[in-house]
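ok so i was messing around last nite and threw this chain in just to see what happens. nothing serious, just curious
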Amino acid sequence: MYSYLDNNATTQPLPEVVAAVTDAMVRGWGNPSSVHRSGMEARRLVELARESVAQLVGASDREIVFTSGGTEGAGLAIAGTLAMMPERRVVVTMHTEHSAVREACEALAKRNLAEVVWIDCDGAGNADMASLDRILETRAAEIALVSVMWANNETGAVQPIAEIGARCRTRGIRFHTDATQWVGRMPCDLRSMHVDLASFAAHKFHGPKGVGALWIRSGV
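result:
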């Protein structure tokens, strides 16, 4: 008997998910930007999906941007924030982040588009809040974004996202969380967590591969 014990890497799509995707491909094959009947049906299905995702994370459907997965969503959040705030070049994150975040930050730093500052953590991977406070107190005017993952897929560490978000919000600093290991598994109300951007992917909670979303808080 085969036992699969790697759900933090990916999950098997549920039968009803496979059926829904198949049905959408049959009924919604049109270009959703077209104004004919097939296009309008495709657009209707896209917007229904957007509403469902918004309800999942306690958001407005206007705040949901579809992506190909968590990696694209995180990269868009980081690079997009830096592009919008050229006067601020510092990105604050952790060495324990998923490579989607860590490597995106390092790639921007290599191109002299960002400076990466690392938050210390303990042996279990928990963020050292005193370290974060020191960074925020000394570099606040330079920081474009703080990015901390909600739950770690390897260590199981769950970060105090609301607390980190509140610290950033009071200083006018944007906060992104890689919520890939949280959304769809635990209750999620992004607005109450003082988060500005959150990336996640469907394949982590029995959805299809190649489907993700970036939540961007209204006003960001």
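not much to say yet. The chain has two domains: 15-59, 64-216.
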